[in-house]
Design brief:
7-stranded antiparallel sheet; 19 helices; globular; Serum Albumin, Chain A, Domain 1; alpha+beta; single chain
């Protein structure tokens, strides 16, 4: 019996957020201007990026400033204690920066297993044993050093000022703290800062974080070594060890971001660059997009059952191939194999145009059974920037779960991640997002865990878009659906972001649909074709910017996160 068959009964951890807009709902008017644009999760962070654009900064400067502001105002996801990925298009140059976390030197294949080989409940999710080596301090600095225009201190300053002068607690932050209160109160350090008096600060409370302001001040002067060496690195190590972690100052000091070649493909007349390994995102987006082009997606009725059927089948096959992916040095396959024209032709040809496949029968590329060990909400944040020259940055950072591993380091002023759960901590078992992963992504010291982050840039004929999202395994499926609506259906950028979405990830064998994504009649037809449909609000939130050939910029933020934040600089510099 195949690995897929043995795992077919496993359940997805479904996330619940604000429902998407109905099919016939009018989107907000586009936000446009001529000096650049920023889209992010939080208005204060978007404002930080716009401040930098107004000061003469470029898209890279604005992206870093926005990301650092998110460290302050969105601590459940914005981070210096996690990692991320960025895809950049400056002129004709396209680049991909990998600052994904790595496994600490003391990590072992069986770190999260008991003596019987079974996963230890919560070990890869709560507490510092779940923390990978943070990549954000070095990664954000590397992005600025290669592409930034303003001084490093100028780019860090808006975030430092937010932490020192304070910001008003948003309803979203308050709700996140409430949601995770039982986990957060396990750690004295966390509770002292984020649960004063035993409960989260009320919405509208002015919150200052002087310890984070001090870290950012030092970061502005010294760069990454303000965090990866010296007293803060030592504090991270001591805090981790106090609670059973293995992260050390030596791990932090040894970390290096890597500039890699992005995934590149062409679909529906657009050139696309997206994240390659250690992320599966670009491969998933590329695989599904090319399959759909071969399956005549463009010619199918927009809201009909055929589109839902075809997109589910394309994702089913793309996510099956994801099983073989991992760190670039250990992955059993990669973009060369999985985006090869011959393989995608074979994948598309295997789709029955009228009937659903069974995930049990869809095996990964050149699949050889991998021996499994015996037997979502998540918090990422995405931002997109474009400047007055049309340069673009799609930047995604993550702590993995809400507030990462829930451990706050008071001397540094930020949370540590729980990205070790993105490894196959027990190969063949589902992670936080219900994703099934193989030995190519097993825990190994120094390796980078597989991700679903999908920072993406697409362009043609003088026009370009940068986008990505938050939401675990739903990130690549949401990113692609926004592109398809924008490319083929005449949607403006905001309308494309707002549209209700579908999601399939091979296992479990279900087609997940946001409210209003399928009419009752369409759902009935989709189910008649053999798809198991489950209605669930999507956790994916996509933020996008656009550069028009006319020289205008446009920003679109996803309303699913409570409204999001998008902005542009109107004057032409």
């Amino acid at each position: 019996m195949s690995t897929a068959r043995r795992l077919a009964a496993l359940l997805l951890l479904a996330a619940v957020l604000t429902p998407a807009a109905p099919l016939d709902a009018a989107s907000r008017p586009p936000v446009t201007g001529t000096g650049g644009a920023v889209a992010s999760d939080e208005k204060l962070a978007t404002d930080a990026g716009l401040e930098i654009l107004r000061a003469g900064g470029n898209a890279a400067d604005a992206a870093v400033a926005t990301a650092l502001a998110l460290v302050v105002v969105e601590p459940e996801a914005g981070n210096l204690g996690g990692g991320g990925l960025a895809v950049v298009k400056f002129g004709d140059e396209v680049a991909y920066l990998d600052f994904r976390e790595t496994a600490p030197a003391a990590a072992r294949r069986d770190t999260y297993l008991d003596k019987g080989g079974e996963p230890v409940p919560g070990a890869s999710l709560v507490g510092p044993l779940a923390a990978g080596v943070p990549g954000s301090p070095a990664g954000l600095h590397a992005l600025h050093q290669r592409y930034g225009k303003l001084s490093w201190r100028a780019v860090v300053e808006p975030a430092r000022r937010l932490a020192a002068d304070g910001f008003r607690v948003s309803r979203r932050l308050h709700a996140g703290l409430e949601e995770e209160i039982d986990v957060l109160r396990r750690f004295e350090e966390t509770a002292k800062r984020w649960l004063p008096g035993g409960k989260p600060p009320a919405p509208g409370t002015l919150l200052k974080i002087p310890e984070l302001a001090a870290t950012l001040e030092d970061y502005a002067r010294r760069g990454p070594r303000a965090i990866t060496a010296g007293k803060r690195a030592k504090a991270i190590e001591e805090t981790a060890k106090r609670h059973g972690g293995i992260l050390t100052a030596a791990d932090l000091g040894a970390y290096e971001p890597v500039w890699r070649t992005p995934v590149r493909f062409e679909a529906f007349g657009w050139q696309v660059a997206s994240a390659d390994l250690p992320s599966s995102g670009g491969i998933l987006v590329g695989s599904a997009a090319v399959q759909l082009e071969r399956l005549a997606w463009r010619d199918t009725p927009r809201f009909g059952a055929q589109r839902a059927h075809l997109i589910a089948e394309a994702w089913r096959r793309a996510f099956a191939d994801r099983y073989l992916l991992g760190d670039p040095t250990t992955s059993a396959a990669g973009a060369r194999e999985l985006l090869a024209a011959s393989w995608l032709e074979k994948r598309a040809a295997s789709v029955d145009p009228a009937k659903a496949s069974r995930s049990n029968d869809v095996e990964p590329w050149q699949f050889t059974p991998i021996a499994a060990a015996a037997g979502g909400s998540g918090d990422t944040t995405h931002l997109s920037t474009v400047d007055a020259e049309g340069n673009l940055v799609a930047l995604t950072t993550t702590l993995n779960g809400l507030f990462g591993c829930a451990l706050y380091v008071p001397e540094a002023g930020f949370f540590l991640n729980n990205e070790m759960d993105d490894f196959a901590t027990a190969p063949g078992r589902p992670n936080l997002y219900g994703l099934i992963q193989g030995e190519a992504n097993e825990v190994r010291a120094g390796k980078r865990m597989l991700s679903s982050m999908s920072p993406t840039v697409a362009w043609r004929d003088g026009e370009a878009v940068a986008l990505g999202g938050r939401g675990g395994s739903k990130i690549p499926t949401a990113t692609l659906q926004v592109l398809l609506a924008f490319w083929l259906d005449g949607d403006g950028l905001q309308a494309a972001v707002d549209r209700p979405r579908l999601h399939h990830q091979w296992l479990p064998d279900k087609l997940f649909a946001e409210p209003d994504a399928l009419s009752p009649e369409t759902r009935a037809e989709v189910e008649a074709r053999g798809h198991a449909v489950e209605m669930a609000a999507s956790y994916a939130q996509v933020h996008a910017v656009r550069w028009k050939s006319s020289g205008e910029a446009e920003a679109a933020a996803d309303p699913r996160g409570g409204g999001g934040a998008a902005g542009v600089v109107r004057p032409l510099f």
